[in-house]
Amino acid sequence: MAEEVSKVFDTILVLDFGSQYSHLITRRLREFNIYAEMLPCTQKISELSWKPKGVILSGGPYSVYEDGAPHVDHDVFALDVPILGICYGMQELAWINGKQVARGEKREYGPATLNVVDKVSPLFQGVDHSRVWMSHGDKLHGLPTGFKVIATSDNSPYCGISHESKPIYGIQFHPEVTHSTHGKILLKNFAVDLCHAQQNWTMENFIDTEIQRIRNLVGPTAEVIGAVSGGVDSTVASKLMTEAIGDRFHALLVDNGVLRLNEAAMVKETLGDGLGINLTVVDASEEFLSKLKGVADPEKKRKIIGNTFIHVFEREAAKIKPRDGKDIEFLLQGTLYPDVIESISFKGPSQTIKTHHNVGGLLEDMKLKLIEPLRELFKDEVRHLGELLGIPHDLVWRHPFPGPGIAIRVLGEVTPSQVQIARMADHIYIEEIKRAGLYHKIAQAFACLLPVKSVGVMGDQRTYEQVIALRAIETSDFMTADWFPFEHDFLKRVASRIVNEVDGVARVTYDITSKPPATVEWE
Ligand code: GLN
């Protein structure tokens, strides 16, 4: 799939040597409309079905001189396109051209000031004297054969090097991290001025290419099925399918009984009526809730929901009869690029591929072929795409919601009345967040129902009821997160509304734990 995008858009190939920042190189390039694709450093160049406009060798945790260190396929030089080595990538270029790499006396981690020696170097236009970010322990101990120094820093005499006659560059620092203040300009200089890549990677262009690609793939008669959840990814993927093949795409919303308040009705209205997606809503709430009865263990709850979902989906899908009388052939999946990166990034010999439990099961049982139109996209690109496809702003910018839904926000046993309490409290909380204009400042917010009772007093009567915990986090990537600093008046208002309006709640608390050590969800 990625190959086809790379055939249409000028592409910079990022070969990943395992750095934790590799995917950021791809991101930064796309931010100025250049398509970039990351592949593991072990990629054989002869096996590529497209030709990159330039190649970037990423950083990595290994040392080029150690046994078993990963090395680039030398055919990359025969491509005759510009090459940029970053940190390990530069050390790799040096290793290939004279082996002058060894452990430095001390590690260099943190900021340094870039001092450009070759003032006319296209790579460094507009970046001289800027702050660059270092993270290395190995060093070049001499110039690689055929190279010259084009930049230095206080600690690195070989902070930037380039080949005397070919467009091959190496830099010791990491331009892809935001701590390198002008790093983005440097990457743009490389891609645009040196590689001459066109800046045409826009979501407008992607829509056209992707619709055409889906049509070719599915053909004139086959039909496609996909699950929708009310979330951004599945909605955008479904809308794109509908644009491509109309009602030969069937969307299925399984109401598992642990969705948010009025969710099924909202999805029907927005996706079905509003966006014209061929949608079937199946109410399986009783089936899910009866299976969850008596189960308090979070992992068991997740498994039950996952398995029941597969079961219900298969059963309901079998009721859909394609017009050509054949079976449904494809399953739509809203996989995003970060999941793809996770599965292809270079992790050495112990590389593991993550598979999605639900999809794997469905593909096997139903003999379906997978179709993943968002596979090349980052989340912000998906949102932009969603806006262009006319999906309502509120849906496009919705907070993420976990697959097992409210079942993992009702701690302990999940019963219909517990779900209702959690659902009502959550609804009030989110409503107040929106009213206060805070929804888009928060990455994720929700209410949890705790399995404890607490004494209270209401109207002179003793009460003995449950506790709601509120959570709201700020984060850019969900890997680490901090709790959101609400004004006290806001918390006061929410707490008072929840206790007054939701039967069964006597007390409200606010979760002030960051991630790590806590996770975003409570279960
Ligand atoms: N492992 C190499 C070093 O320590 C490269 C580090 C990197 O690419 N960030 O120098």
Automatic annotation (TrEMBL):
Pathway per the UniProt entry: Purine metabolism; GMP biosynthesis; GMP from XMP (L-Gln route): step 1/1
Coiled coil region boundaries: none
Enzyme superclass (EC): ligase
Keywords assigned by UniProt, alphabetized: ATP-binding, Glutamine amidotransferase, GMP biosynthesis, Ligase, Magnesium, Nucleotide-binding, Purine biosynthesis
Ranges where the GMPS ATP-PPase domain occurs: 201-398
Pfam families xref list: GATase (PF00117), GMP_synt_C (PF00958)
Entry-linked Gene3D superfamilies: 3.30.300.10, 3.40.50.880, HUPs
Subcellular location: Cytoplasm, Cytosol
Cited PROSITE patterns: GATASE_TYPE_1 (PS51273), GMPS_ATP_PPASE (PS51553)
Cofactor needs: Mg(2+)
GO CC terms in record: cytosol
GO molecular function, one term: GMP synthase activity
Cross-referenced InterPro entries: Class_I_gatase-like (IPR029062), GATASE (IPR017926), GMP_synth_C (IPR001674), GMP_synth_GATase (IPR004739), GMP_synthase (IPR022955), GMPS_ATP_PPase_dom (IPR025777), Rossmann-like_a/b/a_fold (IPR014729)
Subunit structure as annotated in this protein's UniProt entry: Homodimer.
PANTHER family: GMP SYNTHASE [GLUTAMINE-HYDROLYZING], GMP SYNTHASE-RELATED
Annotated NCBIfam families: guaA_Cterm, guaA_Nterm, PRK00074.1
Function: Catalyzes the conversion of xanthine monophosphate (XMP) to GMP in the presence of glutamine and ATP through an adenyl-XMP intermediate.
Identification of the protein by name: GMP synthase [glutamine-hydrolyzing]
Organism per entry: Zygosaccharomyces mellis
Gene: GUA1
